[in-house]
From TrEMBL:
<comment type="pathway">
    <text>Purine metabolism; purine nucleoside salvage.</text>
</comment>
<keyword id="KW-0808">Transferase</keyword>
<dbReference type="Pfam" id="PF01048">
    <property type="entry name" value="PNP_UDP_1"/>
</dbReference>
<dbReference type="InterPro" id="IPR000845">
    <property type="entry name" value="Nucleoside_phosphorylase_d"/>
</dbReference>
<dbReference type="InterPro" id="IPR011268">
    <property type="entry name" value="Purine_phosphorylase"/>
</dbReference>
<keyword id="KW-0328">Glycosyltransferase</keyword>
<dbReference type="GO" id="GO:0004731">
    <property type="term" value="F:purine-nucleoside phosphorylase activity"/>
</dbReference>
<comment type="function">
    <text>The purine nucleoside phosphorylases catalyze the phosphorolytic breakdown of the N-glycosidic bond in the beta-(deoxy)ribonucleoside molecules, with the formation of the corresponding free purine bases and pentose-1-phosphate. Cleaves guanosine, inosine, 2'-deoxyguanosine and 2'-deoxyinosine.</text>
</comment>
<dbReference type="InterPro" id="IPR007553">
    <property type="entry name" value="2-thiour_desulf"/>
</dbReference>
<dbReference type="Pfam" id="PF04463">
    <property type="entry name" value="2-thiour_desulf"/>
</dbReference>
<comment type="similarity">
    <text>Belongs to the PNP/MTAP phosphorylase family.</text>
</comment>
<feature type="domain" description="Nucleoside phosphorylase">
    <location>
        <begin position="150"/>
        <end position="396"/>
    </location>
</feature>
<dbReference type="InterPro" id="IPR035994">
    <property type="entry name" value="Nucleoside_phosphorylase_sf"/>
</dbReference>
<protein>
    <recommendedName>
        <fullName>purine-nucleoside phosphorylase</fullName>
        <ecNumber>2.4.2.1</ecNumber>
    </recommendedName>
</protein>
Amino acid sequence: MTVRVAISACLLGAPVRYDGGSKPADEVRELARKVDVLRVCPETASGLPVPRPPAEQREGRVFLSDGRDVTGDFERGAQRCLEALRRSPVSLAVLKAKSPSCGVGLVYDGTYSGKLVPGDGVFAEKLEKEGVCVVTEDTVRACKPSVEHPVAIVLGSGLGHLGSLVRPVRRIDYRDIDGFPLSARPVAGHRFEATIGTIDDVPVVVYPGRIHLYQGYSAAEVTALVRHAHHLGCRDIVFACATGAVPGRAHTGLGILTDQVNLTGRNPLAEWDGLRDVESPFVDMNDAYSPYLRTIARGVADDLGIAVEEGVYAGVLGPCFETPAEVAALRTLGVSYVGMSTVCEVVMARALGMNVLGLTLAANESGAPAVSHETVLAAAGEHADDFERLVRGVLRLL
Ligand code: SF4
């Protein structure tokens, strides 16, 4: 595996922190064993001595706790690490949380009291401007599967064969899943039995088929599998769906979903009894498709030579396909893939705080004449091997 990742040296156990210590994180060290690592420590690269007093950011500058302004040192160290990264590019960086150099999203507030404020470390900010996906050890930890936290995988039309890779421990009939409609029958290419087990020793729960709004089910019903996965302890959830590629924005084949437009006119949160139990019904849908999981998927695809595009998914009610005017409208909206599932599931998963990866098989061009369900299944068969390698590659890196 040659996915390249920049990682804060202190997370790997190097004694590079201001106090001469380190902050090793087991999950990050495990990731480091599976990828090609570029160790970074912008503070060491700056030439600042170790040990020294701690540093924090205040009003756009960096000060040691004895009052010395070390903004120039931090800039210099960050720039040196950035240049190393440009010589040997990475698409993902795992940096130490809260640090004035490496922190992502939250940093210490300059009072040396442990309080945090929104913001990025000096180095993290530079990486983000370069287009690198920057996360902390907390993200790696939150996405790490275990027996208590298996990875949920929900498979769409023709992609259900992935379920055959599972070493099963237990099977669950969908009819035993709370909120799943008892009357539901699978369409061709689907099976309604979840399998709990492992794929390549990674704990998983595979749902090899789903129901759709266009079959007359409610948004609450079509998201029952997501709530079930959450109830089982799953924190990561992979949605795989068949779509049409919007001409001019995507080609047929495999795709990684980057965002979504919900054009179904439905929202599972508006129909769900459990809404009162979530922290807030006003769910943040920024980065609904986890940038960390997307970047891992991209890295795996590149590493294995699997052709994959990326783009925004639009979910429509269906079941008819799109008119030429609708295809033109989708293109104008910036949509690459259009399908009849997934959007409500992603809303539910985000409401439950789950990490989402969206993968699609664009089986046809949106708006192409005479697309049948059989066409979708045939295309799925054609890409089955690549899809399987992609999912297994992602699982191995989590
Ligand atoms: S947080 Fe970043 S700069 Fe600070 S010791 Fe760790 S790697 Fe070095």
